[in-house]
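Weekly structure sync, notes
Attendees: PL (lead), two postdocs, one rotation student
Agenda item 3: pending single-chain targets
PL asked that the sequence for the first pending target be pasted directly into the notes so everyone works from the same version. It is reproduced below exactly as submitted, 279 residues in total.
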Amino acid sequence: MRIDYHTHHERCGHAVGKLEEYVQRGVEIGLSQIGLSDHMPLLHVDPAQYYPEMAMPMDELPRYVEECFSLKERYRGQIDVRVGLEGDYIEGWETEIRAIIERYPWDYVIGSVHFLGEWDITDFRQTHHWEGKDILEVYRQYYNAVSKAAATGLYDIMGHTDVIKRFGYVPSEEQTAERSSLENAALQAIAKSGCAMELNASGLSKPCAEMFPSRRMLTEAIRLGIPLTMGSDAHDPLKLGDYLPEAEALLHELGCTEVAVFEGRHRSFIPLNVEASGV
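Predicted structure, written out during the meeting:
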């Protein structure tokens, strides 16, 4: 069985393809489950004044959910469609985030930290914000936000947990121990929260050239007993499932035998697909 729990489509503005094209592609490449997980609408910035093409407009959210559930029924028996949301964690906006999450019958919600204040650290148009910054201090802010996100209990899965490294901005070698300490503290918060964490394969196509999270963090997550799931973070139907064989092989190598899946926000497990590992 193969799953892909992290996908985006045209409503978010920075992806292409309709939801049904993702589902059809999932059938084509042999996925057993596909998670539709587009971005939550922006809350803490004015979409009209902010960078364009960041997330779906608020008035599109009910239409997104309706279409997802329609596809879930239409493709029943061909592929299991899971209806999800990538819900940004914004400190101070927990009440508004909770209202969106509780308004709809999601199968799962991914908790991701994209924003430090109004800076989206994952947006290539905003890398200039790194200029003059103490990189380690930015990492402190980021992992503090990840820990707080996990502690809210709002989320089922923590998304791309070390995406802060995406554009290659990393602390110096002399700061490796402190960086690892920050990462470990965030993992401990995730473990304490009881939520799962994704292995997001898309990092292999980014400047960091490494999955989210890193092998070291993934090893620690497994040691802590954090349930793991998987996603390609595809922003194009043709990229659905990209690098998942590499992700599966890494999980197998590290001793992981199962991955978490969700329906109605209830977690269960399926065996890890090990075809890519040659076993």
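Discussion points:
- The helical segments are 19-28, 61-74, 94-103, 135-151, 176-193, 215-224, 244-253.
- The chain is about 30% helix and 15% strand.
Action: rotation student to compare against the earlier draft before next sync.
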